Amino acid sequence: MKCEVCGREIPGKPIHAIIEGAKLLVCPACAKYSSGTWKERKRATLTAKTIKPAVRARRRRTNLAEEELEVVDGYGEIVRRARERRGWSQEDLGRVVGEKASVIRRIEREAMAPSIVLARKLEHALGVKLLAPPSEPTIPLAPAKTPTLTLGDLVKIREKGEEK
Ligand SMILES: [Zn+2]
Question: Which CATH architecture best describes the domain 70-132?
């Protein structure tokens, strides 16, 4: 077994070192550059089973939500009224939805629109409706400025590129 840093034969067991973010098997001399250690078995389980499906599922759900819903007009007022009706401070509401009071303040002033995920949490915490399907599309589906390219145009463009 050779050290992945200096290339020398490692006496005894290699050390699982993290050097500049890379997981390497190194000799005791190179282990001093390590910022931590890693374990082979643990890492395999985490990436294969725990991390990836969770990330993938979350991303899919967010995309779907963003396609179909948007935060309604007057969301700040809706949040503030519902919060005050409950007798909650901005800190209280922040704690319930896992955000800082400053975030709640900005949302209530409509200085910042909540993300779809946060809007969902606020809906549940306050029993209000903050998300609705977009009333009218803000971005035209087919931008008028973009010329439609035919297959022939694409070939011409590619040929021009190759001439250089
Ligand atoms: Zn080494």
Answer: Orthogonal Bundle (1.10)
